[in-house]
Design goal:
- It is a single chain.
- The chain is mainly alpha-helical and about 70 residues long.
- It has helices spanning about 1-30, 30-60.
- Helix 1 runs antiparallel to helix 2 (about 30-60).
Length: about 70
């Protein structure tokens, strides 16, 4: 269980870094499509940590005896 949590956390951390970089890029590029992509990127930057927190709470509820 610990190994899967570490792998999942590493994947989420990499995704967050990529989202931060893409948000910066979309903010600097002046193109009509980039405006929508910027909104999506910011929303995903907020939703991803919330999902990670929900996953950890769910794991705690399932594995109370660990």
């Amino acid at each position: 269980m610990k190994k899967s949590k570490r792998i999942f956390a590493l994947i989420i951390a990499i995704l967050l870094i990529l989202l931060y970089v893409s948000t910066l890029i979309f903010a600097l590029i002046d193109h009509p499509v980039c405006n929508e992509l910027l909104k999506i990127s910011v929303a995903a930057t907020i939703v991803l940590p919330v999902l990670l927190y929900a996953y950890t709470l769910f794991c705690r509820l399932i594995h109370k005896d660990d």
